[in-house]
Amino acid sequence: MSKILENNVKHLNATYSNINVYFELKQFTVIAKGKTYDHKEKLKDLGFFWNAKNKVWEISVDKLVERDLSKTFVGPYQPMEDTKKKILEYIEQVSNKYLHDLLEIVFIKGEYRVSFFNSPGAKRYHHAYTGGLAEHTLQILEGALELIKIYPYLDISREMIITSALLHDIGKVKCYVNTSDGIQITKYLEDFDHIIFGITIVSRLSEELIQSDEDKKKFEHLIQIITSHHNIKDWGSPKEPKSPEAWIIHTMDQLSSKIGGTVKNKN
């Protein structure tokens, strides 16, 4: 199998698995399986044709290798296992017990430990693909940590940067869902928006974790950052950032959403 053919089949599966369409190399053709009838127009656009005798959508290998389809898909820049590994490593860098326990519940032990890494970042505008939320989150985290270096004279909490970057969009875990018709929004986005629902998640999980006044201050700071990470009301934030940490998270969120999740997959 040529490298282009191998990559094309790989990227076809990575791109269309969220709508339950799968691709398989069979002798001299690549056939489509799953809910192909529902998405026949997409298959036609890719060059597939209906083989009435075998009752399958297929494309010849020769035609499939004419184009490097991997360059046409928007998707995760790196394998999700690599993104997850980096996120878990950053969590281990947080020594404050309240913040660390909160992150551990969300990303390692709690109900979102799997769904977070499978969630899209949006329906269409940025990081709109499986794993997009985690990729967007890591981009913000790593960019924010670089921004800290520019301001060595400010008392910026690295642990709060890590925690707020990881949790700023946690509300999106239930705002979008992959269906046979692609990414769809849920009632959580319609009724609450991801910021409000994210605040609800963090508040609920923090109830039993806060053990001191210092923990409460960190909780309130974290909530303010989540609340303000879109900066203005027209963009969904009821309040603007107040702290250096909040401004850094907002800035990186803007950058990631504008350029980080709209480029072609380079894998």
What does this structure look like?
The protein has 267 residues and is an alpha+beta fold. It has two domains: 3-71, no CATH class; 80-260, no CATH class. It has helices at residues 3-16, 40-46, 61-64, 80-91, 97-109, 115-118, 132-148, 158-167, 187-191, 193-206, 213-228, 244-260, and strands at 21-26, 29-34, 49-51, 56-60, 176-179, 182-185. Strand 1 and strand 2 (29-34) form a beta hairpin. Helix 8 crosses helix 11 (213-228) and helix 10 packs antiparallel against helix 11 (213-228). The protein is elongated, with a radius of gyration of 21 Å. The relative contact order is 0.13. The model has no long low-confidence stretch (mean pLDDT 88).
Largest sheet: 4 strands, antiparallel
Strand content: 5-15%
Residue-averaged pLDDT: 88
Poorly predicted ranges (pLDDT <50, ≥5 residues)? Answer: none
The H/E string reads: HEEHEEHHHHHHEEHHHH
Label the overall shape. Answer: elongated
* Alpha plus pi helix count: 12
* Rg from Cα: 21 Å
Binned, the helix content reads 40-55%
State the end-to-end CA separation: 17 Å
Strand order of the largest sheet: 1-2-4-3
Judged by helices, strands and strand pairing, the structural class is alpha+beta
DSSP summary, beta strand count:
6
Q: How many individual domains?
A: 2
Protein name: HD domain-containing protein
Pfam families: HD
Domain HD: 134-256
GO molecular function, one term: hydrolase activity
